[in-house]
Specification:
Distance between the termini: 18 Å
Largest sheet: 5 strands, parallel
CATH superfamily: HAD superfamily/HAD-like
CATH class: Alpha Beta
Number of helices: 3
Number of strands: 5
Number of domains: 1
CATH architecture: 3-Layer(aba) Sandwich
Oligomer: single chain
Length: 155
């Protein structure tokens, strides 16, 4: 099975790392766009799966999350080790504010740390632009055989 899921870190990536209460701008739109495309959206956190679930619920994005996981251990190089995942949750894209700590599987996308509420933050804009337009003319910036979402599918 081809990896299709997108795996997001919680603190500092989707939610601010100081209070954990501010959802990063464009996060809801990005997660909703992925779910509309039937792309599994996974969260993981060093705080644990329950912590990630609670944060998603408090931020109002739990309905967009397919599964939550724990960042439990590191390998000898300091990368987090992916937990045992079902094949349909194999990550194609991993988004993190500490990309050097992410296991080198799939496409690792680093974003600047989201430290506190900032309505002008645009760190997720480039990822949101990778999603096909919901209405209007087809995006011609990608050839028919390219896969801008890195889902393993062709258009």
């Amino acid at each position: 099975m081809t990896a299709r899921a997108w795996l997001f870190d919680v603190d500092g990536t989707l939610l601010d790392s100081v209070t954990g209460t501010s959802l990063r701008p464009l996060a809801r739109e990005l997660l909703a766009g992925l779910r509309e495309l039937d792309v599994p959206v996974l969260l993981w956190s060093a705080g644990g799966a329950d912590y990630a679930r609670r944060r998603a619920e408090s931020a109002g994005i739990a309905d967009l999350v397919t599964a939550v996981h724990v960042k439990a251990e590191r390998d000898g190089r300091g990368h987090w080790v992916l937990p045992a995942l079902p094949p349909e949750h194999a990550p194609a894209v991993l988004v993190d504010d500490l990309p050097h700590e992410v296991p080198p599987v799939g496409e690792v996308v680093g974003v600047p740390p989201y430290v506190g509420p900032n309505p002008h933050d645009t760190a997720l804009a480039a990822l949101l632009r990778r999603l096909p337009a919901r209405a209007g003319p087809r995006d011609e910036t990608h050839s028919n055989d390219e896969d801008p979402l890195n889902t393993g599918r062709t258009r």
